[in-house]
Design the sequence.
């Protein structure tokens, strides 16, 4: 029986009067690669950001590894947790952003070892050793001393992946990781992600790269207007899409 | 018009001991005021940005008060006003051969309190100018707010506000003359004193102006050097000279 790692139950989220997430429920089991697709404004990025509580939710609940994210359960009423506890929960959830968000004031190596040293209390030696291994894995070992501004977008994104992996998270979230890249750099980032999927990393990926989704995803979740309209293996979605939205999305992007 | 060139050159190149002491006092007061301003400014900026009303409103009020009233009034209020009300009297402090008189302390404090309000706004602007994505990335790695501030946001904010802070110190050097009103013998008051004995007013104030120009020019040179260093740093691709992890070795 597959172990449930991420679970969302009837999650609702508003921005002002607009309902961004409308009763979203799904589960992700350990080792699974789930790709979220949907047109812009469908709520897929917001959903991803709720999983490490970068966004608050108004109703429902999200758990990672069985732990409630962002809230404490007071007799059935959810109360937002203290910042310190939320920070602790986030250690298990790695995130890669569309715009990389490498720390501009730190070298590549320092970007990767900052959180392991400060959050996990590792020594510089231990953190650096792992950082160098991760850099080698993303093919950037020779860039350890460089600063983010001197790297290409693709290189920055690969460092960002290494930085998230350095915390040894249980699940990795990717928020449109290739959308801000020049076309010739998309491949190098997708290659790293493909490697992670093969190694059994649990991943949730928001992307418009349909070819990649078809290849790598164990499951594809289709979102439309804050709801999940289809959730299934890529073969079925690509060959026999049930929902008109799925058909439209897969028709326009290949 | 008669300009007494020999007197002018004499005062400029071989000023009285009293004038030189005034020069040192001007520098001491300016640096003292700026340091206090910096020390006050950061916590005030954080309080001003805080979600807690108990931090945010006092900080807002302090900034409102200090920016909304004349510095000259603040100086007199702190030295003369507080003493007259019996609230606080500044006594001379002696440490070994050095004595800092009460009015100098009051002057530095007043300049510092005033500067703190402007520093708070500069720090706030600098912190706000750091890309939100930096904070989000740090959050996603499990860092707590204090760590995010110290290791990620503040180093980048400092770089942004270095030049505005330098600009403030230029203003501070000139505003230090205001403490003459509570009898601090900085350059302006010394000049006035010499003038009342010699009446070489034009010559003396020309010398005073030139000394201030020299101070602000030297400071301008320092800031240009800092700017040049920073630009060179960015050209190489390293965004910061001051890195929080540098100098720490396991």
Sequence:
């Amino acid at each position: 029986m597959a172990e449930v790692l991420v679970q969302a139950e009837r999650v609702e989220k508003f921005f002002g009067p607009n309902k961004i997430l409308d009763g979203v429920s799904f589960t992700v089991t350990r080792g699974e690669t789930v790709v979220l697709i949907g047109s812009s404004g469908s709520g897929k990025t917001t959903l991803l950001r709720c999983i490490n509580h970068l966004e608050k939710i108004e109703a429902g609940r999200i758990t990672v590894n069985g732990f409630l994210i962002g809230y404490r359960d007071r007799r059935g009423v959810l109360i937002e947790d203290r910042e310190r506890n939320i920070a602790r929960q986030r250690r298990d959830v790695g995130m890669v952003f569309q715009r990389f968000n490498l720390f501009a004031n730190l070298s590549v190596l320092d970007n990767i070892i900052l959180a392991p040293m400060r959050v996990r209390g590792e020594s510089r030696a231990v953190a650096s050793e792992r950082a160098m291994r991760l850099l080698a894995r993303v093919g950037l070992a020779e860039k350890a001393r460089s600063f983010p501004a001197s790297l290409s977008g693709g290189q920055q994104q690969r460092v960002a992946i290494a930085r998230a992996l350095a915390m040894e998270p249980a699940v990795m979230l990717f928020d449109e990781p290739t959308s801000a890249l020049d076309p010739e750099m998309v491949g190098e980032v997708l290659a790293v992600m493909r490697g992670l999927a093969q190694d059994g990393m649990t991943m949730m990926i928001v992307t418009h790269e349909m070819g990649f989704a078809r290849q790598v995803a164990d499951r594809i979740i289709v979102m439309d207007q804050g709801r999940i309209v289809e959730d299934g293996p890529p073969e079925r979605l690509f060959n026999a899409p049930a929902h008109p939205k799925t058909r439209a999305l897969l028709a326009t992007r290949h | 018009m008669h300009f007494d060139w020999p007197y002018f050159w004499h005062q400029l190149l071989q000023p009285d001991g009293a004038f030189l002491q005034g020069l040192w006092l001007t520098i001491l007061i300016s640096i003292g005021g700026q340091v206090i301003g910096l020390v006050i400014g950061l916590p005030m900026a954080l309080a001003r940005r805080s979600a807690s009303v108990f931090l945010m409103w006092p900080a807002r009020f302090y900034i409102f008060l200090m920016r909304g009233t004349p510095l000259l009034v603040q100086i007199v209020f702190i030295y003369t006003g507080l003493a007259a009300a019996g609230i606080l009297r500044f006594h001379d402090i002696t440490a070994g051969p050095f004595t800092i008189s009460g009015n100098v302390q009051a002057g530095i404090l007043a300049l510092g309190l005033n500067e703190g309000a402007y520093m708070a706004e500069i720090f706030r602007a600098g912190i706000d100018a750091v890309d939100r994505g930096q904070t989000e990335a740090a959050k996603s790695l499990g860092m707590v707010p204090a760590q995010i501030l110290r290791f990620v946001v503040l180093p980048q904010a400092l770089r942004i506000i270095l030049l505005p802070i330098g600009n403030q110190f230029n203003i501070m050097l000139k505003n230090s003359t205001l403490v003459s009103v509570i009898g601090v013998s900085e350059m302006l008051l010394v000049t006035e004193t010499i003038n009342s004995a010699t009446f070489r007013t034009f010559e003396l104030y020309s010398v005073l102006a030139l000394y201030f120009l020299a101070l602000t020019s030297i400071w301008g040179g320092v800031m240009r050097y800092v700017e040049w260093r920073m630009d060179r740093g960015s050209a190489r691709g390293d965004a910061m000279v001051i890195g929080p992890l540098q100098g720490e070795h396991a």
About this structure: Chain B has a mean pLDDT of 91. The two ends of chain B are 72 Å apart (CA to CA). DSSP finds nine helices and two strands in chain B. The longest strand of chain B covers residues 93-95.
